Each structure stands twice: as C-alpha cells, then as structure tokens.
Amino acid sequence: xxxxxxxxxxxxxxxxxxxxxxxxxxxxxxxxxxxxxxxxxxxxxxxxxxxxxxxxxxxxxxxxxxxxxxxxxxxxxxxxxxxxxxxxxxxxxxxxxxxxxxxxxxxxxxxxxxxxxxxxxxxxxxxxxxxxxxxxxxxxxxxxxxxxxxxxxxxxxxxxxxxxxxxxxxxxxxxxxxxxxxxxxxxxxxxxxxxxxxxxxxxxxxxxxxxxxxxxxxxxxxxxx
Length: 225
Prior knowledge:
With 225 residues, this protein is mainly alpha-helical. The chain has a single domain, classed as Rhopdopsin 7-helix transmembrane proteins (Up-down Bundle), CATH 1.20.1070. The chain is 78% helix and 4% strand. It is built from 9 helices and 2 strands; from the N terminus they run H-H-H-H-E-E-H-H-H-H-H. Strand 1 and strand 2 (131-135) form a beta hairpin. Helix 1 packs antiparallel against helix 2 (29-55) and helix 5 (141-158) packs antiparallel against helix 6. The protein starts with a helix and ends with a helix. The relative contact order is 0.15.
C-alpha cells in the first residue's frame, strides 16, 4: 500500500492501468466523473510517492512542499465533492438521487472547511509507523473527519449498482479498521485503499458496456427516472 515511495509508485502505476481502462469505457458525460475516479486515485498515490521522497530528503524542500499540498488538496478538498457527485450523476433512481444531493452538499461543506484550513498554511506531513500522517485540518478536524467519511461513503452504499455498493462497503470497513488501528494515518491509508478497490468502478463500467444498452439510451433512461 503506502509504506514507501516505491510502494506508492508501483501501486499508482498498477491502478493507473485500471484507471485508463475505465476511462476508455466512458460513453457519455454523466459517466465521466465516476470514470475518472480510478485514474485520479492512482495519480494521487504517485503524488504521495514524491511526498515520501521529500520526507526522506531525496528531493528539494520546495518540491516536497508542493507534493504535500497537492496530495492534501485532492484528499481533503476534491475527493469529498467528486465521489458523491460522481455517484449521483450515474444513479438512475430519482429518490436515491434526491438523497445523494444532500451528500454532495455535505461533501462541499467539508471540502470548503478543509480548504480554509489549508489556506491558513498549517498543513504538515511526517512519517510515523511506516505511514505518512497529515495534519493541519484545524480545530474541528475530528468533526470534519466524521462528516468526510459520511459524505464519501454514504452515496456508494445508496447506489442501485452492486459493484458501486461494494466499493462503498469496502471503504467503510477500511475506515473503521484504520481508525481503530492507526487513526492518525487515516488520510494516507484510506486513500490508498480507495485506490485499490476502485477496480470495482471498472467492473461496474464493464457491466454497463456488456449490457448492450447504447450510451445515449442509458442517459435518456436516467433523465426520465
């Protein structure tokens, strides 16, 4: 997973292959946000590889600072908005979509709070127990973490699609396990796990394409539901 720069680079490259394959199966605009998730998570792992190199004094401090902030910006600001929005856009059930809108709003609120914490300039990263621990989420870090988990794990569990539900369930289990074993490493470990299980997103796209429903027809069906 994320216990060294080499592990991050290798896992990022492997998951990147899945990410490219997933994007290749995108056939309409509503699928794009979800289709980009595996590749985005793969690139996220590669960025953390550079964070490791900076903490090991193998790259310049300026490069290390950029890597830390890029990693945290995606994990804290982009992901809590992207994930619920991506699930919402492909959901065919109108009642579930209405509930998911609340998760998108919640994720947006969490992202904005964490962005403000980042802009205060107190983001930190250090190695502890073979993982990278990120700090600087402000005085409400604990509450933000809980709401973050709700915003990112809730929508997949509500999905009409089995593979996406499994994606959400796997992430919930990972969050609970990581919080119990090493809460301070949650950002790094959970993002790595999310990247690995994003193969389920690829499987869902494969199921859609095997169904034989043309992309434009599928999109109309969603809009009418």
